[in-house]
Amino acid sequence: METYFGYIMRVITGNRQNIDVVYNQRLATFNFIIGETLAGNVTIDTLQLYGGWSRFSIRFDEPQQEASFYVNDKFICKGKVNLYKSPCCQIFFGTNNYEGYQTLDTPPMNIKDIRILEDGKVKHYFPLSEVRGTEAGDSAGKRTALIRNPAWIKPRHQNWMTVKTATINGSPSVAFDKQQEVLYIVAKDSLYRFSLKDLRFTGVQLAKGREVLPAGNQSVFNKQLYNFYIDQQKVSTYDTATRTWDVNFATGELTEWWQANKFYSTVDTAIYIIGGYGQLQYKNKVQRYHIPTQQWDSLAVKGDAFMPRYLAALGTNAATDTAYILGGYGSNTGDQAINPKYNYDLMAYSVRNSTFSHIYHLPEPASQFCFANSLIIDPGSRDYYTLIYPTDKFNSKLQLIKGSLETPSYQLMGDTIPYAYYDIRSYADLYYCPASKKLVTVTLYHERDDVTSLKIYTLDFPPNPVVPERAPAGKQRFGFWMYIAGGLVILLLAYNFARKKKVPVPAERAVLLPDEEAPEAAAELSTIYLFGQFEVFDKSGNDITKQFTPLLKELFLLLLIYTYKDGKGISSEELYEALWSDKPAKDARNNYSVNIVKLKAILEKIGDCHIGRESGKWKFEILQDSMKIDYQHYVEWMAHKPALQKPAINELLQIVHRGSFLKTVHYEWLDDIKANISGQVTDLLLQYIAVTDLQAEAEFIVKVTNAILHFDNLNEEALGYKCRCLIISGRHKMAKDAYLKFTKEYKESYGQEFGRSFTEITLEA
């Protein structure tokens, strides 16, 4: 998050003199303050500030009664300070509640490696490498640092976070725009877009859908989005303005090029395809599609032999004139029937002279594995990252590894990701976001009913190696003096926890696998969401939304909503009128009896509940708090309606953050209920904004306005406040983009231009 002001650290000496390091965003400076005197300041290069660690230190000179400030071992300034002999200090990072010296303003920062030195020797050392808890251990002494509201960095570099799960019709493929950090999911009738910057998942329906999107199609992005099908040697380009693809694929035989590797080269403006598998044959062919001439060729290659293979990882250097291919599965002859085997060679392919070069062979592992489709290469260090996984079981796991293009070794990094592996039905890829500094894993699993399960995971970069956790040491309080060396970096951090869905074992398999259950995954347990998309998760965290047929969903929503909105429930007559108005009462009763049994069978998977009549009306009751429903939470919050202060508003935002109430569900009986909820939420949030100091709460107000715009995308007050707060936070372009998006939607809705300028809307806010 961007910020405007805050304390990096504050030292309180024994004679109650403050020594502070304070960040001022408006001037982009770090100020060194002694008492009420600004001793000096320093500006850190933006690239270093946001992209690396900066070493700060304060050095006390007792004989001279001075404190000096250094950044990255460079002297910045010094000033006079009153020190007792053998002084004792209180040291705080961020906020503190030390009486008389409380500070509430804190910039978003990461901090590590706090060292206290005396006479040049380390007396205390706090790596701050814990993964949980509110204490930090001292590796050099016996002190314990205390932390309030910790947000430990290490788990974000160790544990993959599920940021999106979705079900896509057909056989989609994926491509990544690393400049904008956008993942594209190409489907037959739609194009989906997932932004890694704000974790927003959006989809547009094609103006003209394609009749065929064959399984085995692939996609790649470079300034434009390309979708290709190797068997037909066709490449289609997406037109954003018209929402159409310029080339259609024909219906044909099953692809012969499963899991082929591909890359785009700027050397000759071409898409390259290497290897693949199909019809019991592994491939080692190199194919090229030259974009300017729209010519597709098979290239003659030279150099070292490249074993036919698939399930390999490929990445390019920065110039895109060399592709590195690591590992895979195949055979020397290309025939699946003749000694297929795992491969652990690292090969280089030169675009300029079409030559393969063998670099090295990785040591044979104790347990065999294959690779995800991409190799992420760090151009500075020539290190690479990729994902590996065993192929001998359905309940597989993806494991990140780090290796080098120079030496044949690698190490395991981070934790594992559940992966439903079923040969050609499964696909995994790895991408890197250079601005957000995150690794992104995408998995696709094509299920037997011609839908594909999409899952997206992120991990903060650089990842941590797989190492045992270190227990914190010491139990004494944190209060000392002398030399402080801390590291800090200001990052954009955004999270949106997504659910994992259980993947069924397919009826048909390409290889014989042992009898196994589908992989278990952590998810929301026994939860029903009505805000945003209607979604239901059972006791094991599995997404069972699709088990609700349209009729069962409407029946359930009638019972649930009418129970909670006023506590009264719904009469049989109201139910029959909503669901079976065209049927006689007897038939309506029979239909209700049949479907309520089906509904109860589904609800038993979620938790204990009861559906029965009370005072002539049907009611839905949760037993023993066995399930969570966001609408119930909302009704209870509204019933108490706490004072409009930040904690209460934050709780409301947590309830409605997924979007407007049942935003994709449309029933005539539901219209007034949705309008009432939308009005309540919008009015309350606007009331809160009206009495809030925008300067002090700019970042939080942006979140509040985003929630309002979920419910009312053309709310002019919310737009004004949002733009104003973005400007206060220094994000002028984002403010202008929000305004332009609003005006576009306004014109599409009302058929006329929005009547107020950007300047007017921000000033009026």
Judging from the principal axes of the Cα atoms, what is the shape?
A: globular
Task: Kindly state the percentage of residues in helix.
Answer: 10-25%
Largest sheet: 6 strands, antiparallel
N-to-C span = 22 Å
Uncertain segments are 469-523
Word description of this protein:
The chain has 765 residues and is α+β, with helices and mostly antiparallel strands. 19% of the residues lie in helices and 36% in strands. It has 11 helices and 46 strands. It has a 6-stranded antiparallel sheet. Strands 26, 27, 28, 29, 30 and 31 form a 6-stranded mixed sheet that branches. A hairpin with a 5-residue loop joins strand 28 and strand 29. It is globular. The two termini are 22 Å apart.
Which key phrases capture this entry?
six-stranded antiparallel β-sheet; 11 helices; 765 residues; alpha+beta; six-stranded mixed β-sheet; globular; 46 strands
